[in-house]
């Protein structure tokens, strides 16, 4: 379907561009959200007649978003979640979780602004894009951890999962070394002493 864009759409174009998109994308998203018009003769005339107002409204919204950006950019929120020993979450972090955490910190954002390229299903620190306007985006950090202490470590750059595996490996190596030293048997120095004790008791 050919459409006329009413705002900038990433990877498509900017205001006034006539582009071709899949019918479902136009019908289900662009047209109902007033981000585009069908590219027919009547709509072209309507668009041209209102172009200056559409561009002025967009500029005003962009200016508001740029002012808002300073209140959101660089924010870091902590989400405490249960996970397996390998760091896999029981479930995943949703857009709503991120919005609630950001708004609790005074960000004033909505679900439609969060651009989550893939679901967050492990603990760690993730960069998440917030699109305040089609032409204004900022980044925030989402720190997903099992405890506040772990979140603090991750904020300092510690990979807690890798550190946990290193600790487990070190413990296993120590246990193996201890076993090899004794070879699973009594040390030779103790064997005659035990034999002597057994003779005395007899």
SSE class: alpha+beta
Helix content: 40-55%
User: What form results from the Cα inertia axes?
Assistant: elongated
In N-to-C order, the SSE pattern is EEHEHEEHEEEEHHH
As residue ranges, the low-confidence spans are: none
Estimate what percentage of residues fall within beta strands.
15-25%
* Largest pleated sheet: 4 strands, mixed
What's the overall average pLDDT, rounded? 86
Order of strands across the biggest sheet?
4-9-8-6
**Separation, N- and C-terminal Cα atoms:** 101 Å
- Computed CA radius of gyration, to the nearest angstrom: 31 Å
SS summary, helix count: 6
Strands, count: 9
Describe what this molecule looks like in 3D.
With 202 residues, this protein is an alpha+beta fold. It is built from six helices and nine strands, in the order ββαβαββαββββααα. It has helices at 23-30, 41-72, 95-104, 148-155, 160-182, 190-201, and strands at 2-5, 18-20, 36-38, 76-80, 88-93, 114-115, 120-122, 124-133, 136-145. The mean pLDDT is 86.
């Amino acid at each position: 379907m050919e459409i006329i864009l009413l705002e900038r759409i990433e990877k498509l174009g900017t205001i006034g561009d006539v582009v071709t998109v899949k019918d479902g994308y136009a019908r289900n998203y662009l047209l109902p959200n007033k981000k585009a018009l069908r590219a027919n003769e009547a709509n072209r005339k309507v668009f041209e007649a209102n172009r200056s107002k559409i561009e002025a409204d967009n500029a005003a919204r962009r200016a508001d978003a740029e002012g808002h950006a300073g209140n959101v950019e660089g924010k870091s929120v902590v989400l405490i979640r249960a996970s397996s020993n390998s760091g896999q979450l029981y479930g995943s972090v949703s857009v709503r979780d991120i919005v609630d955490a950001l708004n609790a910190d005074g960000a004033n954002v909505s679900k439609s602004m969060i651009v989550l390229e893939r679901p967050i299903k492990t603990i760690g620190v993730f960069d998440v894009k917030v699109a305040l306007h089609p032409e204004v985006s900022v980044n925030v950090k989402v720190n997903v951890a099992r405890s506040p202490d772990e979140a603090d470590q991750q904020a300092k750059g510690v990979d807690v999962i890798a550190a946990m595996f290193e600790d487990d490996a070190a413990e296993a190596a120590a246990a193996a070394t201890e076993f090899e030293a004794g070879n699973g048997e009594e040390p030779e120095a103790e064997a005659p002493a035990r034999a002597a004790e057994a003779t005395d008791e007899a």
